[in-house]
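2024-03-11 09:14:02 INFO worker-7 job=invfold-0412 stage=load source=structure_tokens
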């Protein structure tokens, strides 16, 4: 009797799980999206090799956005913890992978020269952090909950509170980017970018539930956000959904 075949090393990505590149209600996708079928290119050594990241690249406060930019005190806003695991398609942890985040401050403004929203810049908040997952794929950040902000899509569109998350693979060119939203935010269902996602279950995987077990009493609430890298039910990863 022949042994059962081993499962494939990787699962193909379900294209129906991903939003279309051309989504007219998300206005900036119209000039950015291709009109012809995409080409499939064979990966080369330049994509699968290159610089890697180690512990020496991470400073002690890199994952603490409450402290890593502070000049005169703590940043303004609701203090939160964002934590979770990076997993492969079979639920196995992905250790020692670089996770980066960036976000607006509690008023909804980014520390970026092109952000002209009227909310003030917080002098004690830089809005960026990074960390390496541990041997069990765990990561965590301390930060403040970002504010919603208006954007020029239609007359009165607002982006829900969100944190951008980047995950690097084993080579410099292996990078995935997504956005994490917060449980209970009514703006999620109204966001034209979110509405481009065809499967409600895919949207659910971008929403971090409140995790009171990880909260710190009288200090910080916590939200749990697991990241699944591949497979049919992988976390949705964007392709320059906001030009980042």
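2024-03-11 09:14:09 INFO worker-7 stage=emit residues=244
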């Amino acid at each position: 009797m022949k042994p059962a075949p081993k499962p494939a090393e990787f699962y193909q990505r379900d294209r129906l799980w991903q939003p279309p590149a051309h989504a007219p209600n998300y206005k900036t996708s119209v000039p950015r999206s291709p009109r012809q079928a995409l080409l499939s290119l064979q990966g080369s050594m330049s994509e699968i090799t290159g610089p890697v990241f180690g512990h020496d690249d991470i400073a002690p406060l890199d994952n603490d956005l409450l402290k890593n930019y502070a000049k005169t005190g703590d940043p303004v806003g609701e203090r939160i913890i964002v934590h979770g695991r990076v997993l492969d398609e079979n639920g196995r942890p992905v250790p020692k992978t670089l996770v980066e985040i960036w976000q607006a401050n509690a008023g909804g403004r980014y520390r970026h020269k092109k952000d002209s929203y009227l909310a003030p810049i917080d002098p004690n908040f830089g809005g960026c952090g990074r960390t390496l997952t541990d041997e069990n794929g765990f990561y965590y950040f301390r930060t403040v909950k970002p504010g919603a902000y208006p954007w020029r899509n239609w007359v009165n569109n607002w982006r829900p509170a969100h944190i951008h998350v980047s995950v690097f693979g084993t080579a410099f060119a292996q990078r995935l980017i997504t956005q994490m939203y917060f449980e209970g935010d009514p703006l999620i269902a109204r966001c034209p970018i979110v509405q481009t996602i065809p499967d409600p279950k895919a949207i659910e995987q971008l929403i971090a539930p409140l995790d009171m077990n990880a909260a710190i009493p009288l200090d910080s609430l916590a939200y749990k956000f697991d990241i699944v890298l591949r497979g049919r039910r992988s976390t949705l990863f964007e392709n320059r959904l906001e030009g980042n």
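2024-03-11 09:14:09 INFO worker-7 stage=report msg="Confidence is low (pLDDT under 50) at residues 240-244."
2024-03-11 09:14:10 INFO worker-7 job finished
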